[in-house]
Amino acid sequence: MKIQLSALETRVIGCLLEKETTTPDQYPLSLNALVSACNQKSNRDPVMALDETEVQGALDTLAKRFLISDKAGFNSGRTPKYKHRFCNTEFGALKFTSQARGIVCALLLRGPQTPGELRTHTQRLCEFSDVNAVENTLFELMTREDGPFVARLARAPGAREFRYMHQLSGEIESVPDSPYTGLVSEAHGTLHMRVTILEALVEGLRRDLDSLRVAS
After folding, report:
1. How far is it, in rounded angstroms, from Cα 143 to Cα 147?
2. Dihedral of the CA atoms 109, 111, 113, 116 (nearest 10)?
3. pLDDT by residue (tens digit) across 37-79?
4. First to last CA, the chain
5. Which CB contacts under 8 angstroms, 24+ apart, belong to 56-61?
6. What is the CATH number assigned to the segment(s) 7-84?
């Protein structure tokens, strides 16, 4: 996976992905609208206080890498409006399902989350039938040949669920025991894939047992 984004670039791409889906009538975004989206107090973690110069700098860098484009070219008198070229466009090879795109967008905007949190936070971006569907999509994002795009973090003490985060800003040095952090051999990666599948199955069985106990 070759895309490496700074924290500011991550916020810009995440906002463009989000607004393309949630407010298509207002997309592409002007610089002013994009600054407002980046500084939103809801659906953002961390909350930022960026100015136009900072956001414009990120846009200029992303444009040089062909990850965004603007619609000002044909009429210099109009206000530039920006759109991403990050995924699912005619300009690049990176393609996601709507569910994978929704998860990546939510992780870019809100940081590490559990599958349950991701299901809640992607409701305006895509549909998941249940938490198992979220976990299946996360597994696909962790094991894609052009990835990985997602890593599973070590479970915090006392936590019942694992959290996941995107890997679009490089390796995740703070979680060395994550099965998809860093470079691993093909054999080592295959073993971890099997472990991840088994853990997901056990987690699903545990939830089913909890539901049966509640019902009884």
Report:
1. 7
2. -10
3. 999 999 999 999 999 999 999 999 999 999 999 876 444 557 8
4. 47
5. 56/31, 57/8, 58/6, 58/8, 58/9, 58/11, 58/12, 59/12, 59/31, 59/34, 61/9
6. 1.10.10.10
Give the residue among 178, 28, 21 at the shortest CA–CA distance from 103.
21
Please count the other Cβ atoms lying within 10 Å of the Cβ belonging to residue 183.
7
Domain boundaries, the chain: 7-84, 98-215
Of residues 191 and 27, the one with the higher pLDDT is: 27
Q: Tell me the CA distances in angstroms from 146 to 4, 141, 165, one per residue in order.
A: 13, 9, 17
| CATH no., domain 98-215 | 1.10.10.10
Name every residue whose Cβ is closer than 8 Å to that of residue 69 and which is 6 or more positions away in sequence.
63, 82, 83, 85, 91
